[in-house]
Design brief:
CATH superfamily of the largest domain: Photosystem II 12 kDa extrinsic protein
Number of strands: 0
Helix content: 40-55%
CATH architecture of the largest domain: Orthogonal Bundle
Largest sheet: none
Radius of gyration: 38 Å
CATH topology of the largest domain: DNA polymerase, domain 1
CATH class of the largest domain: Mainly Alpha
Structural class: mainly alpha
Strand content: under 5%
Length: 150
């Protein structure tokens, strides 16, 4: 009973015990299982060391990203069919110039040569020369005229 003393409440209580006495008080895993885990870890470490030695012996190394050769993505853009996001990927052509290229194409018609890009405000000879390697070849003017014929 509690006589009004707050400290007296827990003095008579005993810690809870396992009534059946089945609570294990030993290692987390049994000795036989410990041996199996230890052997598996040793086998893994030996295999990893062997793999590393074979790789080293054969001269193969990991690729160090700082010393890897840069990969160059090659692509060509058809200025008469590309949407502005594709044109914006060209060097020195951002979203604004790409939109102008598309707008000029819609207003004045398809570009018959790459030099026709000079009519777009913001594209000068220097910019044109920078993007020229990325432009898909345009059909010759004679071939375009033949397509327009009835």
């Amino acid at each position: 009973m509690n006589d009004g003393n707050p400290n007296a409440a827990g003095k008579d209580r005993k810690p809870l015990e396992d009534p059946a006495g089945k609570h294990p008080r030993g290692p987390w895993i049994r000795r036989g299982e410990q041996a199996v885990v230890g052997l598996a870890m040793a086998a893994f470490l030996l295999a990893a060391a062997g793999y590393a030695l074979v790789e080293r012996w054969e001269g193969r190394r990991r690729i160090d990203i700082d010393h890897a050769r840069p990969l160059v993505a090659e692509f060509e853009v058809d200025v008469n069919r590309a949407a502005w996001p594709e044109l914006a990927q060209l060097p020195e052509i951002g979203q604004t110039l790409a939109r102008r290229i598309v707008e000029e194409r819609e207003v004045a018609g398809e570009y018959r040569s790459h030099d026709d890009l000079l009519r777009v405000r913001g594209i000068g000879p220097r910019t044109l020369e920078r993007i020229r390697p990325f432009l898909a070849p345009l059909p010759a003017a004679a071939a375009v005229a033949a397509d327009d014929a009835p």
